[in-house]
Amino acid sequence: MPDWVPGKRFGSDKPLYVLTSKRTFSAAEALAYSLQAMGRATIVGEVTGGGAHPFAYRKVSTHFALDLPESMSRHPLTGTNWQDVGVKPDVAVPREEALDTALRLAREAIKGRSASGSDLRSLP
Q1: Torsion of Cα atoms, 54 then 88 then 18 then 75, to 10°
Q2: Are 88 and 31 in contact (CB under 8 A)?
Q3: Alpha-carbon dihedral of residues 4, 10, 12, 17, nearest 10 degrees?
Q4: C-alpha distances in angstroms, 96 versus 55, 91, 93, 101, 102?
Q5: In 3-state terms, what secondary structure has residue 68?
Q6: pTM listed for this prediction
Q7: Start-to-end Cα distance in the chain
Q8: Residue 80 maps to which CATH number?
Q9: Tell me: the pLDDT tens digits for 29-71?
């Protein structure tokens, strides 16, 4: 991984919200789990599907196959993962309400910054 990535930075002070549902799975869960573990994002929605371990289908015979785990995901900060339990949202709401809830939280965060005298335009 390069030490420097070109482009404009989003900034670490801006609020970040990740929407989840029970259909959120695998790599999308890894992103939500990592951002949550680092305290960088607020997860809004439902508990995710719980698929952390990479697997492959192995053909045993013409009519039989196994889905065999090939490795185990382990987050470097938590030492654990989301296998079979999913990523638990910080703000639990049905998936149909997740976007509206995240937008409301973002508006409240912006109002809070404006009221405290922070200039949002100066954020990185």
Answers
A1: -40
A2: no
A3: -130
A4: 30, 13, 8, 10, 11
A5: strand
A6: 0.80
A7: 22
A8: 3.90.226.10
A9: 999 999 999 999 999 999 999 999 888 888 999 999 988 888 8
The tokens 């670490």 sit on which residue?
Answer: 12
The pair of structure tokens assigned to 93 is: 């709401």
User: Whole domain around residue 81: which residue ranges?
Assistant: 17-116
Closest CA to 15 of 113, 115, 89: 113
Burial 39-75 (b: 16+ CB within 10 A, else e): eebbbbbbbbbbbbeeeeeeeeeeeeeeeeeeeebeb
31 — phi, psi (to 5°)? -65, -50
Number of domains in the chain: 1
DSSP H or E run through 67: strand 64-69
- What CA–CA distance (Å, rounded) separates 4 from 96? 38
Examine residue 121 and state whether it is found in any structural domain, yes or no: no
**5 domain-assigned:** no
